[in-house]
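Fig. S4 source data, part A: sequence.
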Amino acid sequence: MRTSISARIERHLCAILYAASRIRIACPPSFPFLPHRRVLLHQLHDEMADYMIRFVTVKRDNHDLEKVLNKLKELRERYLTISLDDRGTLMNQTYAFANQFRYMLELAMTITKGALLRDEFRGSHFKPDFPKRDDEHWLKHTIATYDPSKDEPVISYAPVDIRHLKPMLRDYVHAKRIKAKLENIPDNIVLPL
């Protein structure tokens, strides 16, 4: 059976593209990022995890949070040029991870920007420059939305409903139990407390 010329050309072109996709440029890890260098997905993930663990955990400061936000933007740009080691078409875990990593980057940017804008001590997160909880300015929910025309999440705020439970100071230094008192509960509602 003879195959058409276009089918043979297509097969050869596919073979050439496949071979070209398997070429690796050997650069030591100390080299700066070069646009023609293959970007490995797991390398991006490791960089993101390193920055998030070092600078966006319990102790935070604005200078480091700005640095992380810029690094995440750089990782997002580099993500556009990733290459996948696994080229399989059936149950390709690398492809699935690459798809999920895009959303990991956006979520990391949301967490980082929300932390950067919140200048206070709240719960288990603190900034040494802001040692006190500030309910007057920061007793509110942080809301993040995605706008494709912007390079960062858009942060807004909504008030916290404190009609039934007033905020109380948590004191982690002294181990004393304080029982919260519910307020403004209608008489016909019986709670199992």
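Fig. S4 source data, part B ends here. The longest helix spans residues 93-117.
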